[in-house]
Amino acid sequence: MRLKYPFAPTLFAVLLLLISCKEEAAKKEPKQYLLYNVLVDEQNDNYEIFRMNLDGSDKKNISNHKAVDWAYYTSGEKIYFLSDRDTTYRKYLLYEMDCNGENVRRITDFFLHDSWFASRKNESEFVVTSYLDGEKNELYLIDNNGKVLKRLTDNNIYENDPVFSPEGDKIVFRSKESGIDELWIMDSDGSNRLQLTNYPPDDSSIPQHGYHAGPPSWEPNHNFISYPSKQNGNYSIFAIDPDGENLRQITPDSTEEIYHSWSYDGKYLAYDGNDETGNYDIFLMDFASKNVTQLTKDSLYEGGPVFLTLYESEQN
Q: Would the pTM count as exceeding 0.85?
């Protein structure tokens, strides 16, 4: 006997498949945290790395060491940070640790500059800043065991805060080649240098040691570069395309925003900003709606937020 509705089993199977796919997608939705750096003891120069949920709950000290520990970069369950724990005052080496602060491993045996850095090729290669071969900061490509693969700059000019493009074929960084700190971009082998930003020549609001163009971050989904800059008397985060076009301000003037980080999906921008007391705390902005939530608020300096993204197999 023929079925009255021969399409019914096929439709049912499709519905089951859709439900299964949704459940699988839900399982794979990553858990996101924010890392941030806290000056817990100014007299003894003790910075600790804290972790919290994106709503500001469950704040934990995960470094727990009486040294300068500062998280700059994450990938999977690994946190990469600079520390002077095995050296002397503010002489930094590169380390990695698990998402809970366990299994600390030293990567470099030579000093790195206090600078942002990034990796590519599944964390097998890092671009870092060091004065390894001279008095000025230069950029280097190293492997995950601290071996120098290539010196990328050799010009005796102050340069730091290098960040890879999402594809790993470009590096954006800060340089004083023009006389003031601006963003520059180059190929990942150090060739084809090009100045990316130009500070407004009529703006006199920058302090002597302030950022004309601060540490950059490459937004992973819409191919633009963000950076802090003090313009019109206020630090804000700006964005510019990799070709130097389409400059725009992306954070409000309500606080002075400097160090910042993007979530893996570009939905959130985390940054440190000063509150009404002048102290720096951590803020989270929904990039689409521009709604801002203050996540920390106390008397301690809290800055340099970095997203930590754990997929299902990495979550604890």
A: yes
